[in-house]
Write a structure and sequence with these properties.
Length: 246
């Protein structure tokens, strides 16, 4: 089975070979593969690839340069046992077509958090634990560190959303399992991450904080840490400024 790691270090593994980040054809090759793998359900327009690979300084012969990157990626995919047809080109688009049993870490994280939430809705807390841990372990890793752009930022926001959902699941599971310290750790981590959502949602962050406070009060007779309370004050200020500007 082909395994594709898009978070942390870019890596492909199969029974035929292990291809690490340094085997990809430079920065453009890594970015192109990540985009094609993450969006493998649809054809990706050449202009979309060009915008990601050369956002400001596209070479004069950019179509030729992109074709060269795609050709090198096909050769790399052959090393892990895939045919050249795995990366198709038609109508000014490219699409990555992997075997049906391929595993991609970001897809696995989404599937896992769905599974955890579904189990919790059925009050199957024990069944939710494994998927929640898997999802959180995957999305804790960085995504294309050192690179930026609208598509990358959108993917990071989606990854953050999965992480917050996984932490919410873990907080609920630990609470059910009478593990207040672990529940507190997961809840406080979620609170600390909330302000970093791109849209900025102080009201949602305050809701999460209140849930944390009630959890601590009911299980430990304690209050959130001073760091978390300082964060709360910042959230109130942000919410006040947002209300004033509106």
């Amino acid at each position: 089975m082909l395994r594709v790691y898009l978070t942390g270090e870019l890596c492909l593994t199969s029974s035929a070979a292990v291809v690490r980040s340094d085997r990809f054809p430079g920065r453009q090759g890594r970015l192109a593969f990540v985009l094609l793998a993450a969006e493998r359900s649809r054809p990706v327009a050449r202009d979309e690839l060009i915008e990601l690979l050369w956002p400001a300084d596209a070479p004069a012969a950019v179509e030729v340069a992109l074709s060269a990157v795609i050709s090198k990626l096909r050769s790399l995919l052959a090393d892990v046992g895939l045919s050249r047809n795995a990366l198709t080109s038609i109508a000014h688009c490219h699409q990555l077509r992997l075997p049906a049993d391929s595993w991609i870490d970001l897809e696995a994280a989404v599937e896992a958090v769905h599974g955890a939430e579904s189990a919790l809705r059925s009050s199957a807390h024990a069944d939710a634990y494994g998927p929640a841990v898997v999802a959180n372990a995957i999305v804790r890793r960085p995504f294309l560190p050192g690179d930026d752009g609208p598509w990358i930022e959108g993917r990071r926001r989606a990854k953050l959303d999965v992480r917050l959902r996984a932490l919410d699941c873990l907080a609920e599971i630990h609470h059910w399992n009478r593990e207040p310290t672990l529940a507190r750790k997961a809840a406080e981590e979620a609170v600390s991450l909330e302000p970093y959502r791109e849209a900025g949602n102080p009201a949602e962050s305050l809701r999460v904080y209140e849930r944390l406070r009630l959890l601590l009060a009911s299980d430990l007779g304690a209050e959130p840490t001073s760091e978390t309370q300082a964060l709360l004050q910042q959230l109130h200020l942000v919410r006040a400024r947002t209300s004033t500007s509106a």
